[in-house]
């Protein structure tokens, strides 16, 4: 477990909804396009299991993404993501709609992003997180920067951080060694 600063502990303990961008956060940011136009994306299983553990700990999950790739919709269903906003160009409006649907305040939201298009949500949520390869301006607005890269365990790191701050991580992990 990592050592949390008092400020990070306070912010993460309040989270009731984790919101994610996709490209560069759940993936490494690269998009493979087949000759027929189909997009291919790669997701990390550590991130997926972290999201399932976080959901089991009572935190809702959501995606707000600017793209509309069928592979993401499939992954959303596999992981049981609570809310999925795709093809979104105005993330601020989607964020307001999402908060209302989820019944949470801004302070109860965490958002993980990697680019300036994520800032309209990041600058208003309680726990703004960026991945290390994020755009430099986005990094300036993050309360936490993950050690792991996007698509390589960054989301799992955030899930663990939230569960740790809420006092739920140790019990969740210990379930696997009973």
UniProtKB/TrEMBL annotation:
Mg(2+) binds at residues 21, 114. Substrate binds at residue 23. It comes from the Bacteria. Its cofactor is Mg(2+). InterPro entries: CMP-NeuNAc_synthase, HAD-like_sf, HAD_sf, KdsC_fam. CDD domains: HAD_KDO-like. Belongs to the KdsC family. Homotetramer. NCBIfam families: KdsC-phosphatas. This is 3-deoxy-D-manno-octulosonate 8-phosphate phosphatase KdsC. It comes from Neisseria lisongii.
